[in-house]
Write a structure and sequence with these properties.
By secondary structure, this protein is of the alpha/beta class. The protein has two domains: about 350 residues, TIM Barrel; about 80 residues, Golgi alpha-mannosidase II (Immunoglobulin-like). It is about 30% helix and about 15% strand. Helix 6 runs parallel beside helix 12.
Length: about 450
């Protein structure tokens, strides 16, 4: 009897959820063809620059310094008096992104500490760069620079704000939580109204509506997205952010913008345009758009004496992401003055030099047509398949069957390729390729008729 009652309750919850999902605002609904048309430039781009820069850069202990060091709000606010940003030159950032082979950029306009990099009229206690010694709109300068170098313009924004008790206990301090929510809606309207066309909005929080159930409903096929935010019991009750409403406003202001999933809740809401595995490689997925974000050194915000990750690591990670049909968003954390560590900048240029040679196998491709594996994977476009071999020792004797006849096979780094197509699969080898390749890329040109 109890099991029967449980199943009935689960069925009712499932029906409620389906009804809620169907209530996604019309402006957020689109056909698969419309979605692909909007996402096409992003799929082609593959590689972008993430920039975490703000008041926390002064402290030099990462973007979570205020939280991790338990710095009182009033004490932390005093850092604004030291924020001169006298070497801030976003044209140098954009030029570096261009040299690295990146196609878009995403700037942290405001992190969880609440400090705004633009002249926000909606900022609680006017906590903005205009009230620091810098006294300029860093977002305005950033947008102009990124457009000058023909890169995609992206904004990171965190709805969360450690200065509000309502962030921690939205029901206990509901008035505070509503004030924080109001700040978010108003600031997003500023960012998406005052700077022309914006290509990407990268949320970092704001998707709590499913918590209105108290506990996540079980027994449905829907899955809660991967997230690092703790699902605290204090959040049960009335939802705060109203993600559908928030994202509908975004789409009204910027009809072609691409929005990630961190201000949406899959159980009740629109799921965003792409999902964001952080610091790890998502699984091969050609059905759900995704982007891995990663750091070149240390944490997201600047820390001194942090050496950049190796070129081998960065290329290998990029290849694993792209063969999995994802994008790679690589973060640099400039110093408080706005300059980027020289060794990190040089490492990015090394990536760019690799892409100058091998970029045809990355840009404007899609992952697959077969899932990637420990040894490497595939990208493809038109009638070309690129085989990326990262580890020959794990390469299987036979690769999947390619139905079309291979007309020509070449190694992009040089060497002679031999191959045979059989009913059991594809056998392939390379002789004479250069030593020490991070990724052996074999270009398979398929017969078109």
């Amino acid at each position: 009897m109890r099991l029967t009652l449980l199943f009935i309750l689960l069925a009712i919850v499932s029906l409620v959820l389906k009804g809620q999902i169907a209530d996604v605002p019309e402006i957020l609904k689109e056909t698969p063809q419309q979605h692909e048309a909007r996402m096409n430039w992003w799929h082609d781009a593959k590689f972008g620059m993430f920039i975490h820069w703000g008041l926390y850069s002064i402290y030099g202990k990462g973007e979570w310094a205020q939280w991790n060091q338990q710095i009182p709000v009033e004490e932390y606010a005093k850092f604004a008096g030291e924020f001169k940003a006298d070497k801030y030159d976003p044209e140098q950032w954009a030029l570096l992104a261009k040299d690295a082979g990146m196609k878009y950029m995403v700037l942290t306009t405001r992190h969880h500490d609440g400090f705004c990099l633009w002249n926000s009229k909606s900022s609680y206690r006017d906590f903005t760069i205009l009230n620091s010694p810098a006294k300029f709109d860093a977002v305005e300068k950033y947008v102009k620079a990124v457009r000058k170098y023909d890169l995609g313009v992206g904004f990171y924004y965190s709805p969360l704000d450690w200065r509000f008790p309502g962030y921690f206990f939205p029901n206990l301090y509901r008035s505070s939580a509503e004030d924080m929510k109001s700040q978010t809606y108003n600031q997003i309207r500023e960012l998406l109204t005052n700077y022309g066309k914006i290509d990407v909005l990268w949320w970092d929080g704001g998707g709590d509506d499913w918590l209105a159930f108290g506990n996540e409903p079980q027994g449905t096929e829907l899955k809660k997205r991967d997230t690092k935010w703790p699902q605290d019991k204090h959040y049960s009750g009335k939802p705060l952010w109203e993600g559908n409403k928030l994202n509908a406003m975004v789409r009204e202001l910027q009809p072609q913008i691409i929005v990630n999933d961190r201000a949406s809740s899959p159980l009740l809401e629109w799921e965003g345009d792409f999902t964001t595995p952080e610091g790890k490689i998502g699984k091969y997925n050609t059905e759900r758009d995704w982007e891995t974000c990663d750091v070149i050194a240390g944490s997201w915000g600047w820390q001194p004496n942090k050496k950049p990750k190796s070129l081998d690591y960065l290329i290998t990670t990029m290849v694993r992401v792209v063969t999995g049909d994802g994008n790679y968003l690589l973060n640099v954390g400039p110093r408080a003055d706005g300059s980027i560590e020289p060794d990190q900048a040089e490492r990015l240029r090394e990536v760019g030099r690799w892409l100058e040679t091998y970029g045809e196998s990355i840009y404007k491709t899609r992952g697959g047509p077969f899932p990637n594996a420990e040894w490497g994977g595939f990208t493809h476009k038109n009638d070309i398949i690129y085989l990326h071999v990262l580890d020959w020792s794990k390469m299987p004797e036979l690769l999947p069957i390619i139905e079309q006849k291979i007309n020509k096979a070449t190694c992009l780094a040089g060497g002679m390729v031999s191959f045979s197509q059989t009913k059991n699969g594809l056998k392939i080898s390379v002789i004479g390729q250069p030593e020490g390749l991070i990724d052996t890329i074999i270009k398979l040109e398929l017969k078109t008729n």
